[in-house]
Amino acid sequence: MVVLSFDVWNTLLDIRRLFRRLVETLAEEMGSSAEELEKRVLEVYSEAKRLRREGAYTPSSAVPESRRLMARALGIDEEALYRALAKTFAGIDGRELLFEDTLPGLERARSVAEKVVIVGNTLFWPSSYTRIVLDRAGVLRFVDLCVFSDEVGYMKPDRAIFIEAARRVGAPIEELVHVGDSLAEDVGGALSAGATAILVRRGSSYRVVPELRTAIVGSLIEVERAVAELMRNLSL
Question: Which strand (E) or helix (H) includes residue 14?
Answer without folding.
Answer: none
